[in-house]
Known about the structure:
The chain is α/β, with parallel strands linked by helices and 321 residues long.
Amino acid sequence: MSDPHSSHEMRDLAGPEQSPGEHHSDEEFHKQQDHSVADEMSQRVRVLCWVMTGPPNHEKKAKHVKNTWGKRCNILLFMSSQEDINLPAVALPVREGRDNLWSKTKEAFKYVYRNHLNEADWFLKADDDTYVILENLRYMLFPHSPNEAIYYGCRFKPFVKQGYMSGGAGYVLSKEAVRRFVERGLPNNTICSSSNGGSEDVEMGKCMEGVGVVAGDSRDSLGRGRFFPFVPEHHLIPGHSPKSFWYWKYIYYESTEGMDCCSDNAVSFHYVSPNQMYVLEYLIYHLRPYGITYKVEMPILPSMDNLSNSSNAVSILKPIN
């Protein structure tokens, strides 16, 4: 199966039983890499990642998230209905199934609020078939303060006045957004639905709007998207899907097919199979064309508290010719 478009198509996919292993930092090309900016960013822009999963997927999918992009989160948690200390997975008081995803989302953010609110600045929700490039997420978030009431993702336009973020592509809430969601939204069923069902991402969008959290624009300076609800092929290949496909009616901003679809600092892709997780891991973090390098200057990082809105955005990573 290639290029799936639904959770049903992803259901039976599983990753390798034997670990593909990893390249070591003392190898020739790895020794030449300079991670200092990324390392500094990981301390300045702390991201807690919580991944939506369930008991049947702990081995099939979740562990492959842990083995790939999940290891770059400052804190990584898997939200399930069954504890698994090897991931680790948190046993939330919810039932499994698509009809309970909204309930699981609410319980997950309550757990994060109670146990980790002061240990991170931003809080990413992703699925166990989402692949995230954490360095690019931190780069995007850097100009913003976690005290802003804002969240980011792949923005869709129906159902919510300001739009809402696709659940599968992943969305990231500021600390203030999490605080408002749990303290103001969840106790008030006129703002946040108290039911278990409903589309998780739509219901989150309604809650965010109801508590005054802004749906942020995650596009880059060229207007290219960063969060994607499908695998790269879907967005990169012109004519891949007809204009009657639901995506074209939902996407908030005008979206282009081909190379102009996607930012060079893309953050996430959805419906990524467990095997494809390792393929992306290799292509992004290991494969290098010989003789082509990209260097960045270490910027003078301003205090996050002084960056209160997007008008303070600065280009912190400058190519050196």
